[in-house]
């Protein structure tokens, strides 16, 4: 038996080790989290992006991806990134509304008619306005290119939604955001605020009968297993800002900041294309798996929001200046 402990000194004698460079500790370790399944384009592109950042930094950065609420639900992750326990987080501008109310303006119901308007606004002055608000009022900042979630559709286990009256009293899960609550109250639904991490089980156990999300989320999170109907309402567009903790990012020298920003924004541009393709093609797949689809007349739903004072209320809350920035891209909304 080899004697490792030398009597009397207590020293441990081990053969000298040379640590291969690939396993040497990186100078900068970053944790990035999100709430979506690993199969969603967000995580396919995030994995690619992390590998590219680590390789191009020659091992100085270790960028770690934590998908699928591994570090906690959205509410947990938001508090983690605010404190610096988490360095980066992909987050809906609307859920960020609990912290930065102004960020919710991109979610205004039926505002963007198409992706031309969405990217025009978000890569243009409206997005710049929101990013300024985030940086000015929190410990966070947002990278320039917002990632895509998509146009949101309503699914239910009970009945197809054909007209706004069908939403009346519906127990529909919505993400934790003042804006979402207000919108579904305007529809006279019975909205329930639940983090995405708990949505599948909430639908399975009938805590909620309905939810709303883009098809790429419905399919990758397999919500079709617990929902029967999918009503194409396109009631709002939603994206994901990549948020960073300012202090933690400021640890990096400028050249590595530029490297990380370049890869995050480039991955976002590719993710936008992936998500668009998926959202356009998934209806057939979900139909084959038993989901029942119907189209809707957006004007009826928009009228309901108008009549409930939804646009007037939020115009006032966001302020005339921000509202004008939105309408610069969408045209007059009311
Ligand atoms: O929580 C949701 O429904 C999701 C995944 O779409 C968002 O992150 C807003």
Q: Give the ordered list of helices and strands.
A: EHEHEHHEEEEHEHEHEEHHEHHH
Please tell me what the overall shape is. globular
How far is the first residue's CA from the last residue's CA? 84 Å
Helix content: 40-55%
Bound molecules: (2S)-2-hydroxy-2-methyl-3-oxobutanoic acid
The main sheet comes to: 6 strands, mixed
Report the count of strand segments.
Answer: 12
Low-pLDDT segments, ≥5 res? 1-11
Sheet/helix structural class: alpha/beta
Please summarize what this structure is:
With 334 residues, this protein is an alpha/beta fold.
Describe, in plain words, how this protein is organized in 3D.
The N and C termini lie far apart (84 Å). Strand 1, helix 1 and strand 2 form a beta-alpha-beta unit. The chain is α/β, with parallel strands linked by helices and 334 residues long. The longest helix has 35 residues, at 254-288. It contains twelve helices and twelve strands. Helix 1 runs antiparallel to helix 9 (254-288) and helix 3 (115-122) packs across helix 12. 42% of the residues are buried. Strands 1, 2, 3, 4, 5 and 11 form a six-stranded mixed sheet that branches. (2S)-2-hydroxy-2-methyl-3-oxobutanoic acid binds at residues 35, 92, 95, 149, 175, 196, 213, 217, 238.
